[in-house]
Amino acid sequence: MTSIQDYVAVTGENVIDRLRQLARPLRGTKVVHVNSTYVGGGVAEILSKLVPLQKDLGLDARWEVIRGEEAFFQVTKSFHNALQGVPVQLWDGVFKVYEETGAQNSEELRSTLEEADIVIIHDPQPLPLLRSCPNRKGKWIWRCHIDLSHPYRPVWQYLRKYVMEYDASIFSLADFAQPLPHIQYLMPPSIDPLSEKNMDLTPEQVQATKLQFGLDPARLIMLQVSRFDRFKDPLGVIKSYRLVKSFAPSLQLVLAGGEATDDPEGAAVLAEVRNEVGGDKDIHVLLLPPDAHVTINALQRGADLVVQKSLKEGFGLTVTEALWKGKPVIGGDAGGIRLQIVNHHTGFLVKTPEGAALRARYLLRHPDKALEMGRIAKELVRQNFLLTRNLQEYLSILVALIYGDQERIELQLKAAP
Ligand code: UDP
Q1: Quick check: 409 pLDDT over 70?
Q2: Taking Cα atoms as reference points, which of 7, 26, 13 lies closest to residue 397?
């Protein structure tokens, strides 16, 4: 298991010293993160790295996952779609399923949550837990990872009533902030540079992965890594690949994805993708297990073109992961992708499959430029989107919420012995 000391090699001693200083007044603080899945998607990816490091810094941190039936996840997926702007059809009993599952989960989690100094609820699925914890002693934060720039009003008005009862919210970017009666923090997510997903790999490992999945290492590879979700626009990626292939005939497309246990729409979207692929042997749809981190790492390192053509995107960790590997990314002009793709410098922002194809042609024809953009891309991630920065912000928010009404707190200048 990695410890906070291991990150000195990536960030330097100062950053880690500062984390230790910030964590000192929080030693023993009971922090509980709650979300709705241990695997699949960006939130699980972040929590699996963040929580152990919070513990290593002396916090009493834990991660709980709510459970629910298929009907509950259908409801929460439709809420997710609605919050990202889709005018979903709500059916009879939709709110009842949501509220009842919240109440059932609170039976199991109540004592942990009521005892906690800080509870961080990730995304809308576990939002109702707060109402079932009348004796809560700590502060509760709603951490929203979704693109909430233009929510479908009827659903947001309903969920907002729950959010209003929290002590604070955290959004990934300013565009997502909402009129709420409490303090709102802005904090983009991050990747773990030492994880299997992002660690360095040898060229042999990359080559072996290509062969393992039937890719021809001598030919060009275009890649999108994503859950099979319409917001990720996999059909748009296929369209764009077909356009690029007309001038780069050796191109192969890899759509690598897996299932998230809290996403019931994946199978339907996967079927749409397979239908669109038809008999094209140069399109590889890879359904990967949730622990295929090294595989995804190798695919990202081995790709000649990385795309993330999302139509809506809370942040887009897959973009960060590719940028960290020195790849300029062709990304949808949406949500958190805009924070990461500095147009023409770390990649290209696109709105259409045609736009993506045009930029792909540019990168293929200008390999030196692509290399230079990749160098800038990695630096952008080092400065802004590593887990250590995220940890520092979490610690600062915790200090602010717990010690906010004191005039000052003392941060030790030297790390604890
Ligand atoms: N991911 C994965 N396996 C897959 C698809 C995605 O491990 O089959 C990972 C991906 O590498 C990234 C995260 O899941 O770390 C997806 O996060 P992102 O913010 O891009 O999208 P989300 O799924 O949260 O909408």
Answers
A1: no
A2: 26
Query: How many whole angstroms separate alpha carbon 146 and alpha carbon 178?
Result: 12
Ligand 1 centroid distance, CA of 174 (Å): 22
Angle in degrees, 0-180, between the axes of helices 317-324 and 367-384, rounded to the nearest 10: 120
Ligand 1: residue whose CA is nearest its atom 11: 318
β pairing state of 30-35 and 168-171? unpaired
Give 63's strand partners. 33
The mean per-residue pLDDT over the stretch 119-130 comes to 98
pLDDT value at residue 413? 53
Enumerate domains of the chain plus CATH numbers. Answer: 4-190+386-403 (3.40.50.2000), 203-384 (3.40.50.2000)
pLDDT of 261 reads 75
The residue among 203, 137, 188, 127 whose CA lies nearest residue 160 is 127
Cβ-based burial of 50 (10 A; exposed 0-12, middle 13-18, buried ≥19): buried
Any residues with CB less than 8 A from the CB of 5 and at least 6 apart, and which? Answer: 16
pTM of the model: 0.93
Over range 364-375, report the average pLDDT: 98
Residue having the nearest C-alpha atom to atom 17 of ligand 1: 42
Ligand 1 pocket list (CB less than 6 A): 41-42, 45, 197, 225-227, 256-258, 288, 296, 315-318, 321
For residue 410, the model assigns a pLDDT of: 64
408 token code pair:
């000052």
Please check whether residue 132 is in contact with residue 102, taking contact to mean a CB–CB distance below 8 angstroms.
Answer: yes
Instruction: Lowest mean pLDDT of 145-154, 263-272, 299-308, name the range.
Output: 263-272
- Bridge-based pairing of strands 168-171 and 139-143 is parallel
At 390, list the tokens: 């995220």
SS3 readout for 183-240: EEEECCCCECCCCCCCCCCCHHHHHHHHHHCCCCCCCCEEEEECCCCHHHCHHHHHHH
Mean pLDDT of the chain: 95
